[in-house]
């Protein structure tokens, strides 16, 4: 584990990584269970997630081997509870840590540690049986030190690095669709008029479960905004900049078109 191994291509003081759609392979039907849960053909359910780390410098008084406190996590893109889809998350830390394989069976899916070095964390997502029978493996580079090292590192402003992805489940089961059709963390397809699947009866102890959303998380002030509304605002601002640039170029062209053309000098003959 290197003490100051910098991640490639990271923005200053961490930053956000552009999202991508991670399509999970179609559910491999067990012949003995086939027919127990019908599937919605040519439909997709997607789950936007954010995974990353937040690292705080503990100051000069901290020991050399415990210079930073950091948290790695998987959260909803708008801080919603992911437990309707994700059953557990496994974080694989550097072998130098005690018990480097950490299993989180309930939300919030996160863990906190102290250390001095940067390394790659493997994050494995496991889903409920009616969602998918395959795990999804993600990788995140823990970043402790800001890119700008001209001055002393701040103990108040953390280094934040987050990635946004959408997990896509093709041909979802009707049971999965019924459970999440009204879940704010999940994007469900529009079904034909008259199509209706009643949601399963919730267990009696559901109200006793702790909320798994991260809206009131103590680190939420440092979370980045990946909401659709925020992205639309960014697109609108970019479109306005492009339109203003086009208007400016047209004005420059019209001025150039209105300038008198210089006549070519007559050829000189000796």
TrEMBL record:
Instruction: Give residue spans, biased composition: Basic and acidic residues.
Output: 206-218
Which superkingdom?
Answer: Eukaryota
Q: Spell out the residue ranges making up region: Disordered.
A: 1-24, 199-218
The record's GO molecular-function terms, alphabetically, read: histone binding
Stretches assigned to the YEATS domain: 39-183
Q: Which PANTHER family match?
A: PROTEIN AF-9 HOMOLOG
Biological source species:
Eucalyptus grandis (Flooded gum)
PROSITE patterns the record matches: YEATS
- This protein's name: YEATS domain-containing protein
Tell me a GO cellular component.
nucleus
**Which coarse location class describes where this protein primarily resides?**
nucleus
Q: Where is this chain's protein located in or outside the cell?
A: Nucleus
User: Is the keyword Transmembrane in the record?
Assistant: no
Which GO BP terms, alphabetically?
chromatin remodeling; regulation of transcription by RNA polymerase II
Which keywords fit this entry according to its UniProt record?
Answer: Nucleus, Transcription, Transcription regulation
Q: Which Pfam families match?
A: YEATS
